[in-house]
């Protein structure tokens, strides 16, 4: 028995931040996750890192984490390594972020996405993150693809 679900590859540190429940909003330039509303998505950890350090600024100055707390989060996200399906997350509503928002609203979204510059991007709510019992080694894909997760790996 197994679970067949859509899968999306996330670069680190974002894959770990999603599965540890820190990142609860995903941002894309197009509404990639909109068709998956109210469904479960598998989280694949890409081999490459996110290019940029804005996530560190959001975690540190905006969310008030110190370097030890940030390192603990990063270590947690690396528990299964790279090039693996590591967990599941439930997909919520997708909407387009307006070009202009009140500063408080924008900061809240940036905290939830652990990213700045969200204006005009498509944002998707993520909830109920859970790590698999063990990693599923599989090659990543572009955009969404389907993966079959053996029952013994399910949380």
Strands, helices and their partners?
Elements (H helix, E strand, L loop, with lengths): L1 E11 L1 H6 L5 E4 L11 E10 L4 H9 L4 H11 L6 E13 L6 H11 L8 E16 L6 E7 L5
Parallel strand pairs: 1-3
Antiparallel strand pairs: 1-6, 2-5, 3-4, 4-5
Please explain how this structure is put together.
There is one protein chain. It is built from four helices and six strands, in the order βαββααβαββ. The protein has 155 residues and is of the alpha+beta class. The chain has a six-stranded mixed beta sheet with strand order 2-5-4-3-1-6. It is globular. The protein starts with a strand and ends in a 5-residue tail after the last strand.
Largest sheet: 6 strands, mixed
- Strands of the widest sheet, in order across it, are 2-5-4-3-1-6
What is the β-strand count? 6
Please report the number of helical segments. 4
Shape field: globular
Which percent range fits the helix content?
Answer: 10-25%
Find the structural class using helix and strand composition: alpha+beta
* Poorly predicted segments: none
Average pLDDT score: 94
How far the N terminus sits from the C terminus, by CA atoms, comes to 14 Å
